[in-house]
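Quick one - first record:
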Amino acid sequence: MVTAALLWSAGLIAACCVLLFARMSYEARMHAVTRSEVKLERLPEAFDGSRIFFISDIHKRKLSESFLRTMEGKADWVILGGDIMERNVPLERVRENLKLLSRIGPMYAVFGNHDLKADPAGLAVALKEAGGRLLRNENVLLERAGDRILLTGVDQPLQKRDGYPGLPELPPGTSDLCRIVAVHDPVWIQHVPEKPADLILAGHTHGGQIRFPFLGALRLNRFYRKYDCGWFRWYQPGADVQRPQMLISRGFGNRRVTLRLCCPAEMHLIRLRRAIPDQTEA
């Protein structure tokens, strides 16, 4: 009787483990787009309703051509938030991924820490060949129906102790423009006394990759446990940008193991909306 009960319990535990592993494997391999709408006070009227396709932390994953085909025509720009590759990833796979992403719209990218440790020179060439533009502490003006916004790419230091350089100088006559900053690691916000952008797009954290209900991601340090994934907002009444917002992506790829829990892989389709002051949150 006892033996039968133990066997039944062992079988139940084994079945639960198999189901859990299957779920974690499924979350890590998802091709899912998280759709968001963000209201920006300084967004020009011509940009109201425009869309950004944002993807970060691809690492060694291969993008699905059939899935990304459904994104064609749905975004005005593509922004890559770094860790586009990692060590031992064939450059040909990276080229294929970039080729697929370039079909969605004009493509801009920043480096992540794993890009710098892998093949930054090869990746830079692959981006250029795919028609993309790599932003290493550079500004670029995005234009739409005569209006302009500023996109700034912040370069990733190879080692965090190296710190971040100051933001590139603004082009003449652009200090009042709506500004989007793409940066791989959200820890960058610790290096700017005031958030200098209407919208910040970041990745790096993977959302912790393995999360537990009520406890969150246990393997993140103190900063990243606060800034793990999702949307963050501030109110800076005395600053040039009074209501900055930041999106930290859970990322598309995985580190070390192809497993996720309560933290599915994601890409983003972000719709920009022009806000009036009482529409934004303090």
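second record:
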Amino acid sequence: MMSGISRRKKRKLKSEINVVPYIDVMLVLLIIFMVTAPLLTLSFEVELPTSHAKALESKQDPVVVSVLSDGQLSLKLPDAKAPERMAAETLQAQLAAMASQDKSLRVIVAADRSVTYEKVVAAMDVIKAARIEKVGLATDAR
């Protein structure tokens, strides 16, 4: 009677962990990180001067471009007593004419704390369009 009854074999339990799914997940994450890592580097190193730096000595006084709180630009020449308000196009044309006469022309950008960064960058773009290479930012000494 025993011959007709099928016997069940006892199966041993495996004490191993199947790591294939974990390797698949790891490779997918690796690919995701490799693709997204270059996109996350949006910054660049900038060496900022300390506030205790001394002003550079120069034989000539710089031209000062002021950015007012309403976004208006003004130009103060070294021999002028007061700055003159002007449009960006006029300022660019005047700076370009000055730069064509003097290649070592220095321009200082001055702005109040309340002026937005966007307006200061717009002023820097006007100066760059005039092909002036020596540009600085005015600050108060501490």
